[in-house]
Amino acid sequence: MIRSIVGTVGTRVAVTLLNLGVVMAAGHALGAAGVGTISLIVLGAAFILLVNNVVGGGGLVYLTPRYGPGPLRWLAYGWTLITGLLAWWVLQFLAMVPAEWVLPVVIIAVLQGFCTTHLGIILGQQRIGLHNGLLVVQSLLLAGIFILLLRRGDATVHDYVKAATLAYGATALLSGWASVMGRTTVTHAPGHPFTDLLRQGMAMQSANALQLLNYRFAYLLVERWGGTAALGIYSVTTQLAESAWLIPKSMGLVLYTRVSNSERSAEQNTMVLTAMRAAVAAALAVIILLLLVPDGIYRWVFGNEITGLTRLVLLMTPGLLAMAASQALSHFLSGTGRVVHNAVGSGIGALVTLGLGYALIPSHGLSGAALTASGAYGASVLYQWLVFQRITDAGWRDLLPTGQDRQHLLTLWRQLSGR
Q1: Are 193 and 75 in contact (CB under 8 A)?
Q2: Over the stretch 336-387, which tens digit does the pLDDT of each residue have?
Q3: CB 367 within 8 A of CB 312
Q4: Which of 105, 211, 379, 415 could hold 352 in an S-S bridge, CB 3.0 to 4.6 Å?
Q5: d(CA 373, CA 310)
Q6: How far apart are CA 195 and CA 148, in angstroms?
Q7: CA distances for 257 relative to 250, 262, 328, angstroms
């Protein structure tokens, strides 16, 4: 288990770095406006995937051992194609994506849907190492092909669309072959695969949809009032700032494993509070490093048009720290069967994003967007903390570091690794 977790952490780091490599290449070759247009393409595909993953998403991991990959695969394929066609029709009437990019967004989303189906089956077969490797290959192909296309001259956003299509298409073929070659021990669930996929997927995607609105709806507001160049700067800021969550998210995975297998509430409470304090400290260390980097270095890395990142990261800092704490709280709620509270928290954050976004972004621009993010993240985590307090009788003083934190973290690590 510990090898799988370390591999998963390494995968997240590698994918994050490769994604930043794509942003760096786009910033230098296409400028802030090009980065902003790419962000709209990625966001449009993400919204389509929310619907696609109702059937082709995380439910496959749970149901593959129960039905086998055969019936689930074809149901997911059909659903992916249907959602792609519906999305192509719906996006004709929405201003979410510029008209010229509607078809490319749908194609990219459909290819990603096939990849998600295959990767879900592979995880259901407990081939975690292969799953992680394919994610790295996918990001490596995207970054490599994109950079090669940009170097041919006359760089445009079409180069990203071509790179994404080739990368996701190749990964879909490779992962599809790998999912067919894997072995699955089937337990024969008593229900119907499509019904069970819907039941599993609806619960997961409802929370994911609210979380996506919480995280990314501000993109649309920034583009509306500031244009694609402003969106490009803001999207680089968010991707850079969210690197502070790499360690907290990995700690959340460890915590989820322990909480799910522990029935002693006192032990759970100690683990959660320790992990939460450690996650915030780790995020704070990364944020301090980001704030110490001069703006000139950011312009050198991401392109001359990407400016003002330090100030925006500073404004986002309260929200980034709050979401670092959320990695512990949300995994506690999931691990104890209270996942509905995560959805409610995301919903609260989405409402704050809508309210503050419309109030601040038109008048304060990117600073308003950063403050909106901090407010939304903070409101979401405040709800989770109040729920945690009600369940555990924890107090505000428990947020402060204690002399036993180091020992608790070592104990948690030893228990997980079996040492």
Answers
A1: yes
A2: 767 788 888 988 999 999 999 999 999 999 999 999 999 999 999 999 999 9
A3: yes
A4: 379
A5: 15
A6: 44
A7: 11, 9, 12
